[in-house]
């Protein structure tokens, strides 16, 4: 390898031996694995090695390589001062004074107004949690599980009683899913450390899943929602084609793993029933073993030990396994319809390098508020506010929503809100439309 000249060395380390100044053109050259730079608050960081130790997973930083990551950095970290300390050793310079703060010709006024909105919401206390809210939520999950076990204890294992028990257990599992989501986003406890610890307990002991696996998937989704090759939630494993771009792309290339023009029909048999009991179940254990997540595995095993100790004494091993999978089957339907109603019908495309507000709004929509919708969806009916402010406690989304809507109106950014039924129906309509686009391209292009 050629040695750097003194001039090149100064360019990299700066004349003071610490850092230099860079243009966006130079920053954008460092986007590949093993050579990744990001910009945060006009400072340039070399994160090439740090990505492997990043608590949110290595891919999330990689998705912002060569870009301004300021808005994502602010959105994901509740304690910015602490994170800045960890980032100091990675600092290699800053943008040249003549360079704009935003890359890719983003609207600087919109970015600044969104930053001001966040500061306003912080001043109003929208990022402060109510511990009683989460304690009551945890309490009602434990109560549902206790009632289910008591019903078996008192009334036996008849079909009707077992059906009631399964519904109660599936409800507890779904609600525990929303609760682990809160801890995973660091929106409950005052410190990240306690959020991470309780997250492992809730997702591991109450649900039998892995915090590390969830972090790896879910933070990528938030960082680049509905962006192909960056959001794992739109990786449909060739079972579906989604959006308007992918169907045409597959059609032109004559890719036909399944009859996609019928995907809105087979979705009912492939999507909701199988995601959790088959795909997620395999992926969770594979991920824990492959990456050595032994603490997660221990918490996960504790869930299975607790479940089988409680239910095999009544049902035996075989029927306890059947009950377990039936509960997962029902939970999977709940999970899929709630999580996809705000994303699948929205824009799904390759990277467009939009500002944070615009990127989140084209990929998300809200469902109208009601006490039932709030509980049923774990407040993910406020999907827009959740994506814009992922560390905000969910009981405060309703307070942020009018301010977000006003900012969207100011800049002509579409803010969508639907009924629950309309959102469910849009999943099927969007799959049908994508299937038609695929068929037309497959036959005619």
TrEMBL record:
One of its GO terms (molecular function) is oxidoreductase activity, acting on paired donors, with oxidation of a pair of donors resulting in the reduction of molecular oxygen to two molecules of water. SUPFAM superfamilies: Cytochrome b5-like heme/steroid binding domain. Residues 19-96 form the Cytochrome b5 heme-binding domain. It is found in: Endomembrane system. GO terms for cellular component: endomembrane system; membrane. InterPro entries: Cyt_B5-like_heme/steroid-bd, Cyt_B5-like_heme/steroid_sf, FA_desaturase_dom, Fatty_acid_desaturase. Pathway: Lipid metabolism; polyunsaturated fatty acid biosynthesis. Keywords: Electron transport, Fatty acid biosynthesis, Fatty acid metabolism, Lipid biosynthesis, Lipid metabolism, Membrane, Oxidoreductase, Transmembrane, Transmembrane helix, Transport. The chain crosses the membrane at residues 266-284, 304-327. It comes from the Eukaryota. Gene3D superfamilies: Cytochrome b5-like heme/steroid binding domain. GO terms for biological process: unsaturated fatty acid biosynthetic process. It is a multi-pass membrane protein. Belongs to the fatty acid desaturase type 1 family. PANTHER family: ACYL-COA 6-DESATURASE, FATTY ACID DESATURASE 2. This is Fatty acid desaturase 2. It comes from Sinocyclocheilus anshuiensis. The gene is LOC107655157.
